[in-house]
Amino acid sequence: MGTHDRGLALQPLVEWRASRIDDPVLKLKYLRSAVPRLEKSGRRMRAFLRFLPLVLAFVTVSACLVRAMVQVDPLPTHIRHIKAPVLGAEGLPDVWQVEGTKDWEIYSNGLRIDNRFAVSNHPRSYQVFPVDHPEEPGEPRTQPAGIVFHTTESQQAPFEAGKNGVLKQVAESLAEFVRIHRAYNFLIDRFGRVYRIVYESDAADHAGHSVWADREWLYVNLNESFLGVSFEAKTEPGQEVPTVSPAQVRAAAMLVEMLRARYGISATNCVTHAQVSVNPSNMRVGYHTDWASSFPFEQLGLPNNYDQPIPALMIFGFESDATFLRVSGARLYAGVELAEERLKEQADERGLPLAAYRSMLQRLYREKFHRPSATSVEQAE
Q1: The pTM is what?
Q2: Which of 333, 152, 346, 117 has the alpha carbon at shortest distance from 234?
Q3: pLDDT > 80? residue 306
Q4: Axis crossing angle, helix 43-70 with helix 24-38, rounded to the nearest 10
């Protein structure tokens, strides 16, 4: 075999060995050591060697660039440990607590909760009933199933920059008053500060005699089953434009998002006090009318629940009157009218006069669900 042939025979072996060397510098040293054996391999090998330094330089520079592109500093711990959002109740993003002390909490959606006024009350415990058969036995529950929105109806100072001191003092005095009376689970002041009052595990005294229902379950006396969220605000009869600050609306949207994600609360069960409040002494709806027609459902990421029929009328035959129509406003009364239509349809299906069917439903409520108390005596007066 001639020198030229031997060079050609060695070329594949040299190339194969060079391909097995990852480090560009070591690869160059190896190829340089192999050059003497290949110098006589003919024109093809001489051309290969002529361009070899240029090729190796390109390979070396490319390798350095790739290393620079992929070599990054590790993510900070607080970013590495954040889990990607997942879908929670009804497509809501997951919301989790990021930081917290005994005095405050911060959540992943920007919500901040002030815990300085937080207190315990009696543990939450209630029964739900099949909405189509409320006469059947109930099913025990301890987790909150919904949210009732309230207004404090407290005195309002002018919401102006020059009144900051007074506004802060009024808000904290209100939070202390609410704490003493265990009146709500959360209070949102006019600056959008969210105060936890009664822990969610406990019932707050916010809804009194009240009725609500979703597609499956009936809820009676919602202190136990629903969370109470109140806005520092005052409303007027028939009002349809909310008198809350933009900060309150933004804070409420974050709070509702957190509560719905944490407890799996349906949007259907996020309602106003005026929608659920009843007076057993005269079997009328609307004993309390806060947020009668002006609640900003859509701005809180909720459907317009004023469009829902009022369950107290439809399930227990409660009634409304001209005073309620004047005070409530058109948005809430639309739910009253829809409930009356459903009630009439149900009576027709059973072949009963509307008055007789209503009387039967009212009797069911009084015998099974109404517990006379000091509150009911006060209502009767």
Answers
A1: 0.74
A2: 152
A3: yes
A4: 180
